[in-house]
Amino acid sequence: MAKQAKTNPDFFGFEELLTDAERDELTEIRDFLQREIKPLANEAWDKAEFPFESIDKFAKLGIAGFQYPEYGDGRARRPLFNGFLSIELNKVDPSLAVASGVHTGLAMGSIYGGGDQQQRDRWMPDMVAWNKIGAFGLTEPEGGSDVAGGMRTTARRDSDEWVLNGAKRWIGNGTFADLVVVWARDEADGNVKGFVVEKGTPGFTASKIEGKIALRSVQNADLTLENVRVPEANRLQNIDSFRDTAKVLAKTRGNVAWQALGVAIRAYELAREYAVTREQFGKPIGSFQMIQDLLVKMLGDITAMFGMVTRLAQKMEEGGAGADQAALAKSFTTTRMREVVSWARELFGGNGIVLDYEVAKFFADAEAVYSFEGSREMNTLIVGKAITGHSAFV
Hints:
The protein is α+β, with helices and mostly antiparallel strands. The chain folds into 3 domains: 14-128, Butyryl-Coa Dehydrogenase, subunit A, domain 1 (Orthogonal Bundle), CATH 1.10.540; 134-241, Butyryl-CoA Dehydrogenase, subunit A, domain 2 (Beta Barrel), CATH 2.40.110.10; 243-388, Butyryl-CoA Dehydrogenase, subunit A, domain 3, CATH 1.20.140.10. 52% of the residues lie in helices and 14% in strands. It contains 11 helices and 9 strands. A hairpin with a 2-residue loop joins strand 8 (279-280) and strand 9. Helix 1 (20-47) runs parallel beside helix 3 (79-92) and helix 4 (94-114) runs antiparallel to helix 7 (242-277). The radius of gyration is 21 Å and the shape is globular.
């Protein structure tokens, strides 16, 4: 006789590290996401369209202010809580989680960390309320991993304005963002600086990248800047070099590790549910040894990922998390995520390649999560330098 199944993918109970109040809030958010956001997800993904009705729903949820309490509800959330929030967002839909993360993490994080008080007060309230949507323009058509040293987008000072020229690629929210943080190399000193380019600025155009197989709802764009003029007031005043850009990326890279965990968890949940309901040879396939082996390997990866990101969040709260630790977390979790979604898709057989069973979406989306915020190889080199003292970057 079968025992009661343990259905929770948090097999070691990491969520128990949250306070009672945090778990209550997480439950409310989880219910809201399932009720308000999930019904929009699959159709938007299938059509490669962004569900704009989700913006008002995210605004109502209030999550944009969680990392910036003075512009939100005044109550700071711990990094560990924000990590579990990321899990819930990605379990519902990785595309909408990425769109939200670009806005709240990359764009708002750049303005909050790189702007002065006047700039933060100017833009952050509208961004917290989702009245203005942000994007982050770093990657270029000819520059991905080497963008730090090979950035081709330029900025030239002209009196009290800056003139920007260049191109950016793979810019999430880029087709409709109100504010785009554009990174450009100053022609005068060679240093990378950050600029907030507002929607409608002459010379600034965005075109949607078509034909994606992953994160299809995210409106990634090619950006073109032709003599785009922005005032000095739109130059992020606390950004002096690419090292400052890297600080923003180090913070968001840790969130990608949580994102990978959320994707892996949902793929596992779908696979486990399918295994106990799908029958072959007169009984559930979950009763077969090879299926159980797949599920246990998936659960093992998820548990290891939980341990790493939980400790990373704790160190962030303590103020001791380093960029190298965030890089290891991103590299490790996205690799394990890739295994989990592959095994989940395998468990579904032919049903695993159609959207009806949902696992196909997570299988495809995982490829994008694996690649962005620094490839596995680049993050490996960051960690390699930390543990050997020698840089292997070309």
